[in-house]
Amino acid sequence: ALTASTRSRLTGLSNKGHKNAKTAIELLNKKESLIGAILLGNNLVNILASALATSLSIKIFGDTGVAYAVIIMTALIVIFAEILPKTYALTNSEKLALTVSPIFRPIVYLLWPVTWMMEKIVFFILSIFKIKLEKNMRVLSVEDEIRGTLDLHHKEGRLYKSDKDMVTGVLDLAEVTVEDVMVHRSNMFTVNIDDDPKKILNSVINSSFTRIPVWQNNDENIIGIIHSKHLLKIMSQNRDITRSDMMQSLIKPLFIPETTSLKEQLKMHLNTKKKLAIVVDEYGVLLGLVTLEDILEEIVGQIEDEHDYPSSNLLYDNNGNIYVKGNVTIRDLNRKFNFKLPENSASTIAGLIINTAKRI
Prior knowledge:
alpha/beta; 4-stranded mixed beta sheet; 16 helices; 9 strands; about 55% helix; about 10% strand
């Protein structure tokens, strides 16, 4: 019961006020001592019971009593001391762990010198065969355990794919870079500060964006971010907007390298209170832009409001074919259809095809 229980579930029970949960967690944190004490006590009882039964059988039946003792004790131990109690313990692990943990704690401390000596002997024998072990060694990271748990519950039908994708999306933030989710510069909506203010104003009004990059002299020279709310304040003063008003209302742009992880960028958005960042390479060349919404979409999926244009990146026909626009990311396709397309060579499906075919 104790070994079948997990720290996460016991921690949840502890937070709900179960007193013995902390004791069970304490025992699990000393797993080597716990298992050593259980095995020591278990084998002592089994060997003692078998020895007594053999001695009694010999007195009653003579030499043939050994055979009777082996048959009877094997049946008793396997059924009533192994299969039956362990099956019950596995099906009621947390409940039984909370019950037995206060009993086992003093036993573990009492048998600690013996189990410590046994551990040393085991480690020494394994070292002879060049097998190195560390105490409390964990083969899987916490992240791997979470992913494995999510996959298992999803396969068993106890977790919706959308919920699974959201949790794994949070875990993936540290691995995905802004280059994988950014709006490429060819698709960026920008305005030229040297244009007529009325033209800029109409462009902002007719667009579906709240924050728009502004450039001067050339379209890679981003000098600031214009916020539609700032323009609205100026308009509320019942006067024409001038180029000077535009310049004064600009927000200082936030420039980030394309190698920034989404986890780092999310923290940056929260700390700087800026929801849009300009992505550049190591030479300062404009690559694109990334917004807070782009990062959130990696967790919850596509976010569309009343001002967004309907998305038609994926089309289906009656034959089951899928028509995909070239700018659809491989990551989105993999998540939506459970594909295994490689994501290391390109971020979009068009990039993957070009990289594979070596031609346009």
